[in-house]
Design goal:
- It is built from seven helices and eleven strands.
- The chain has 255 residues and is of the alpha+beta class.
- The strands form two sheets. Strands 2, 3, 4, 5, 6 and 9 form a six-stranded antiparallel β-sheet that branches. The protein has a five-stranded antiparallel β-sheet with strand order 1-11-10-7-8.
- The longest helix has 22 residues.
């Protein structure tokens, strides 16, 4: 069965925060094709910005081309798009010395029929807000997350760790990358938040929950409130936010 893109209501924005001179986050989407994207770049000499922008554009382009060809597997489609982005960034880093060592996280959501396919590399996250409950659908590819899973560190210790931003996977660092791709059922009225660690390092889940709970279809007001709260709490990193509302008229079956 061909992938059936589900149009979405979407809003996104990046903000440099209060401590960084450069903004190395990037966001993008294709509302008609049901695609939302976010990337958090790293590397000097503007390389982080180049990597994040390249990731967003490469995934968007690859997904669009696959849909035009009548792709039949949404998970495979998104995985291939992320792999293509990795190869593009890695190749550019090799061929242009000023971009050597650049890399980026990526988190992508493709809404198709009654499901959303989520793919990510790194520690940028995707949350789902449904009927008053907030659920994180991605698991960070980070050193502290591995220590938590091994039982060597508690969640509270991980939140305070000086190494909490050390990631174990990124696009552009190696010739191949393993993207984590999962599929979830959607319901009409679901709200999805894609964000960089510039938001989640500053704003706890209780505050995220409170702000998302008040969100209607004016996604911009909620998105701006999330960014403002991150800056109020210190704004120590760039902040990227994408909000996606699944229209009630297109509701899928309950899980």
């Amino acid at each position: 069965m061909k992938v059936s893109p589900r149009p979405i209501l979407v809003w996104g924005k990046t903000d440099p925060g209060r401590r960084r001179e450069r903004n190395e986050d990037a966001v993008g989407w294709d509302a008609e094709r049901g695609l939302a994207l976010l990337a958090d770049g790293m590397g000097g000499h503007q390389a982080g910005h180049v990597a994040s922008e390249a990731a967003v554009e490469a995934v968007r382009r690859a997904v669009g081309a696959s849909l035009e060809r009548g792709a039949e597997d949404a998970e495979a489609l998104l995985r291939a798009g992320i792999e293509e982005a990795n190869q593009s960034i890695y190749g550019r880093a090799l061929s242009e010395p000023m971009y050597a060592g650049m890399g980026t996280t990526v988190v992508a959501a493709l809404f198709s029929g009654e499901r959303v396919v989520v793919g990510h590399v790194g520690d940028s996250r995707l949350y789902r807000f449904r009927q008053g409950g907030l659920t994180q659908l991605t698991v960070d590819h980070s050193l502290v997350q591995e220590l938590v899973e091994e039982g060597a560190m508690t969640l509270e210790e991980a939140k305070r760790s000086v190494g909490r931003n050390v990631i174990t996977r990124a696009l552009g660092i190696e010739p191949q990358v393993e993207a984590e791709v999962r599929s979830h059922r959607v319901r009409g009225g679901d709200l999805y938040l894609l964000c960089s660690d510039g938001l989640t390092d500053m704003v706890g889940e209780e505050v995220l929950h409170s702000l998302l709970a008040r969100c209607g279809d004016d996604l911009a007001s909620t998105g701006e409130a999330l960014i403002e709260k991150a800056n109020e709490c210190g704004g120590e990193d760039n902040i990227a936010v994408v909000l996606v509302r699944v229209r009630p008229a297109a509701a899928g079956p309950r899980e």
